[in-house]
Amino acid sequence: MTEQAIIAGCLHNDASSQRELYSRYSPKMLSVCYRFAQNREDAEDMLQEGFIKIFTQIHTFQNKGAFEGWIRRIIVHTCINFLKKYKKFNENVDLIYAQNQPAKEETIPSIMQGKQVIECIRHLPVGYKTVLNLYAIEGFSHKEIGALLDIEESTSRSQYTRAKAMLETILTKKRIIDRPKEDFKWLAVLNK
Q1: What is the pLDDT of residues 16-28, one digit of tens each?
Q2: How many CA atoms lie within 13 A of 151 on its CB side?
Q3: Between 40-57 and 67-85, two packed helices, what is the crossing angle to 10 degrees?
Q4: How many angstroms from the chain centroid is the CA of residue 95?
Q5: Which of helix, strand or coil describes residue 189?
Q6: CATH of 3-85, one of 1.25.10.10, 2.60.40.10, 2.30.30.280, 1.10.1740.10
Q7: Helix 153-173 and helix 142-149: axis angle, to 10°?
Q8: Could you tell me the fold of the domain covering 114-191?
Q9: Per-residue pLDDT tens for 92-148?
């Protein structure tokens, strides 16, 4: 079934089209949810809430840009709303008192396994993990993150800096990297 046929079927609440859409995109979107979640159950709840929104809002897709990108935006916003709703964002991180740390210029080797990195990201406190995911992987600006999370832009920046520093420490302790490094542009490959 083509993407256009799936969309057309979903617009008419066709169950087989909805199943096809879910089976085609849910594995990748579950991995997005998993990056934000504390555990698999939360990730699955985020995914279910996200797909409910996708099915109820599919009429808003205007064929501008990729359909998968549209789905991903809904899933990411669902994850953020889930964290806010259950107050999981503020559980583990002191957002207000975060301080900036200087950034380094080195890069992490590209041979690093994506699965290992995702698992290490999951060890970060929820606030750090959320800002890191939104900025480094999803491509949101600190201004957009501030608006999404109801925090100051400077708080987003400091959370990102602290998240990178903590992730460096975790990666180093797990011997995924030999020495601390700071350029996290390589995280973009994790969402492909």
Answers
A1: 999 999 999 999 9
A2: 27
A3: 130
A4: 18
A5: helix
A6: 1.10.1740.10
A7: 100
A8: Arc Repressor Mutant, subunit A (1.10.10)
A9: 443 333 333 333 333 444 434 566 777 788 888 888 889 998 998 888 999 999 998
